[in-house]
Design goal:
Number of helices: 6
Helix content: 25-40%
Largest sheet: 7 strands, mixed
Low-confidence stretches: none
Strand content: 15-25%
Radius of gyration: 14 Å
Order of helices and strands: EHEEEEEHHEHEHEEEH
Length: about 170
């Protein structure tokens, strides 16, 4: 069954952490919607990939989506500074909808205040941030905890995509 996946993304995203999961999701028949503060805007990845924002955050409701992708890079930190993205992500955790966060992507989830007791991973520089948010940090290529799939770096993308697609198939 096809799922509708929200992608929270802005400038300075880690290119492969966006392009590879999105390609895998689309090839599996899922719909992907890029969300930022401004619809129609083009955002650039750290390595030059350019993507168009489909919808502004104030134009969408999390209830309209089946899953959430949070690519890494500097994008998650920039999104946190804009505000509202943590509240959007909170819905997915509360409703047990699939959440996929790689590298620095879990930074957005810190703002949900719902990480206590969850097993997670992420890029090593956010390890203490996740621990301080109550998560159980695991230094593993992919960690699946209920509806949450997390990975550390682009090197982990094969495992990240595999586990994300497994959750989407349920």
């Amino acid at each position: 069954m096809s799922k509708k996946i929200a992608v929270l993304v802005t400038d300075m995203f880690e290119d492969s952490e966006y392009t590879e999961p999105v390609k895998a999701y689309k090839e599996a028949g899922h719909e992907v919607v890029n969300i930022e503060s401004e619809a129609g805007k083009e955002v650039k990845g750290k390595n030059g990939e350019t993507i168009k924002i489909d919808k502004a955050l104030d134009q969408v409701k999390p209830e309209d989506f089946d899953a959430l992708l949070l690519p890494g890079g500097f994008s998650p930190d920039l999104l946190r500074g804009k505000g509202g993205f943590g509240d959007f992500a909170k819905h997915f955790i509360e409703k047990d909808k699939p959440v996929f966060a790689i590298c620095h992507g879990p930074q957005v989830l810190i703002d949900t205040h719902l990480l206590k007791g969850r097993n997670m991973t992420g890029f090593r520089s956010i390890k203490n941030d996740l621990i301080n948010a109550g998560a159980n940090f695991k230094d593993e290529e992919v960690v699946v905890c209920h509806n949450l799939v997390t990975s550390r770096t682009p090197d982990d993308l094969p495992a990240f995509n595999r586990e994300s697609l497994n959750l989407l198939a349920k």
